[in-house]
Amino acid sequence: MRWLRLLGLCLAAGALACQPGCVSRRMLIRSDPPGAKVYVDEYEVGTTPVAHSFTYYGTRKIRLVKDGYETLTVMQPIRAPWYEIPPLDFVSENLIPGKLYDPHVLEYRLTPQMVVPTEQLLGRAEGLRRGTYAVSPAGAVTGQPPAGPGRPEIVLPPPPSPGAYPAPAAPGGWRAPSGG
User: Fold this and answer.
1) Is 42 left (phi over 0), alpha (psi -120 to 50) or beta?
2) Distance from the CA of 147 to the CA of which of 29, 66, 118, 170 falls in 20 to 30 A?
3) Residue 74 to residue 146: CA distance in whole angstroms
4) What is the domain class of 19-109 according to CATH?
5) DSSP structure class, residue 161
6) Span 119-165, pLDDT tens digits
């Protein structure tokens, strides 16, 4: 009878040892407004709200895209919980029976895309072409450039006439210009 109890104890210990622990890592990504396409590390994972499993902690590139809204790209750090820091991660991944859950909820607010009227956009483009507007380092048009004696006038050549380029030699190919 004693050997039967010992055998049962060994079987229970073996079953417990064969059932390793597991950590379920998930990130839930939400956006305001919902319905944005989500890319995690350049892979499309779905439309918000979306849950996505991951294996490794660290910084993730998360991009949200929705028509009518500015595209949002965020370098999001995902920190490991205390039980996933080495050497504790060996115990939580392999020796603790059952499943540990590690959810991360990430929420983002999308900003509406600014729509510029076509006439205003063409006017700014023409002003940039003629050199009457300045562009800030951030790429925004800031208005008239500062006038001064040290600033030379920029004169752009007129656009080429339609016959200035050689005609195609064959479909899909161009002839080299003659002369040299």
Assistant:
1) left
2) 118
3) 36
4) mainly beta
5) P
6) 888 888 888 888 765 555 555 555 555 555 555 555 556 666 665 55
Give me the residue label for tokens 């210009």: 177
Q: How far is CA 102 from the centre of its chain?
A: 22
Query: 71 near 63, Cβ under 8 Å?
Result: yes
Alpha-carbon dihedral angle through residues 91, 95, 98, 104, given to the nearest 10 degrees = 20
Average pLDDT over residues 1-17: 58
What is the DSSP annotation of 93-159?
IIIS-SEEEEEEEEEEEPPBPPPPPHHHHHHHHHHHHHT-SEE-TTS-EEESPPP-TTSPPP-PPPP
Distance (Å, whole) CA 30 – CA 41:
17
Of residues 64, 61, 65, the one with CA closest to residue 75: 61
Mean pLDDT, rounded, for 29-48: 92
In angstroms, the CA 46 to CA 38 distance is: 6
Q: How much is the pLDDT for 44?
A: 92
Coil, helix or strand for 78? strand
Kindly tell me the number of DSSP H helices and DSSP E strands found in the chain.
Answer: 3, 11
- Mean of per-residue pLDDT scores for the chain: 73
